[in-house]
TrEMBL record:
GO terms for cellular component: cell envelope
Signal peptide interval: 1-20
InterPro entries: Peripla_BP_I, SBP_2_dom
Keywords assigned: Signal
Family affiliation: Belongs to the bacterial solute-binding protein 2 family.
One Pfam family it belongs to: Peripla_BP_4
Keyword rRNA-binding: no
Name of protein: ABC transporter substrate-binding protein
Domain of life: Bacteria
Boundaries of every Periplasmic binding protein domain copy: 44-304
Amino acid sequence: MRKGTTARGVLGLAMAVALAASTAACSKDSPGPAAPGGGGSGAVGVDLPRADSDFWNAYAGYIAPKAAEVGVQITGPTNSQNDVQKLISNVDSLVTQGAKALVIAPQDTGAIGPKLDELTQKNIPVVSVDTRPDTGNVYMVVRADNRAYGTKACEFLGEKLGGKGKVIEFQGALSSINGRDRSEAFKQCMTEKFPGITVFEEPTEWEGSKAQAALETRLSTDPDLKGVYMQAGGVFLDPTLQVLKQRKLLFPPDDPRHIFIVSNDGIPQELDAIRKGEIDATVSQPADAYAQYGLYWAKQAMEGVVPKEGPTDHGSTVIKLPNGFEDQLPAPLITKDNVDDPALWGNKQ
């Protein structure tokens, strides 16, 4: 210490050094204004969207190990059971319990907006997994490109059917951005690339029983059905195979009577069905990565990091949304050619 330096001078120097270090760190990791929840500590509140889907049950199983891997504490998880009002109640409970950030998966992407704006006012950052809220501020959306799901399913079925025939589509809930994205992209692709294919659009609200009833009715009126697009294998796989088995229509892929089936999710049950020749393809939603990066971005939010647009170090791309950011994760098409790939999360269960 230099002779004559006062205590006030030492304190001022220390504060200046700390401020400089803080400014340098912010400019390195988070250019622009600070993100919500910049305290850097606290628990992440997690709400699970439902317990009646193999995909979401797999996601739930990843929460605890991924939280340990990312280095965050968890409050919850609660389960909103596909009910937006229950989700709102669960969110309030998680915040009351001390959650400083939230990871949720709202199935009704229109109705959650006001609650998101309320959380913004409370400085509680929200990460939305799998679904993109229509309105309301979010820190980050972690999802794959759902329009690509519909396009990949269309192209697969269109090529297998040689551009002609009849296909039934089990649409997810159209109150969800995922249901709309998959349905719109599938329809656009079929209209533009395969106009000779007739598509029967069947709304299901993501309910397996509705898909099952729709398939039974359609097979009665159109027994020459040649393709099925299931927008969520986690809820549609078992009912679909059950109907086909009961009607003795489950033929192997090399049989001319085979009904081609493409799905979305990538759950282990779908991969087994592909190996058996019961279905032909699925688009793999990364349940493990949804949990990992949902929690990762919640931690980033609590640390005050502002996301950057562009490629990430985990093979995805961050884009800017009108109401936040989106981390778009890769979602590969799985067929018999790559079903045994050990990198697929469905092969790690």
